[in-house]
Design goal:
Blueprint: H1 7-12, H2 18-29, E1 35-39, H3 44-52, E2 88-95, E3 98-99, H4 106-124, E4 128-130, E5 142-145
Antiparallel strand pairs: 1-2, 2-3, 2-5, 4-5
Helix pairs in contact: 2-4
């Protein structure tokens, strides 16, 4: 099946490093599973809000990056440059008519998508790191430049 990025996904790629955006745009066209990019570049304030989850705010802990002392690759300055570009995206599979964050098949579909994105990136000569390969934190929606 042939997919394309939605307006939401394209909007969320604004401010993402061009190499990572190029991989995502290429990967969607022949992905085994449709996907939606739910997050790209984050401000310090946005990163601090996510870090607060499971700590001072309800929810599960989803990051160890506090946005100030420990930067996320979603943030502009994480690579030591202030160039207005983030080097990470988060995505989820799109099936049964919607973005599936907590469906029983979400992780399995993310694994399929990740294998495809890694293969696509390798063919383009762009190094990608998948958060699903990490043990702590295990972060299967996360992809970043290597």
């Amino acid at each position: 099946m042939k997919y394309q990025l939605s307006k939401r996904s394209l909007d969320n790629l604004e401010g993402v490093h061009p190499d990572l955006a190029k991989v995502m745009k290429a990967a969607i066209t022949n992905s085994p599973v449709d996907f939606t990019i739910v997050c790209g570049l984050r401000t310090t304030k946005q990163q601090q809000e996510i870090f607060a989850q499971g700590r001072t705010k309800p929810g599960l802990k989803v990051t160890n990056a506090d946005g100030v002392k420990n930067l996320s690759n979603h943030q502009d300055e994480a690579d030591g440059k202030r160039d207005g570009l983030g080097a990470a995206v988060d995505l989820y599979p799109f099936f049964l008519g919607k973005v599936q964050v907590n469906h029983i098949d979400t992780i399995a579909r993310l694994k399929e998508i990740a294998a495809h994105i890694k293969k696509t990136a390798a063919a383009m000569g762009i190094k990608i790191i998948w958060g699903g390969d990490w043990r702590k934190p295990y972060d299967p929606p996360h992809f970043q430049l290597g």
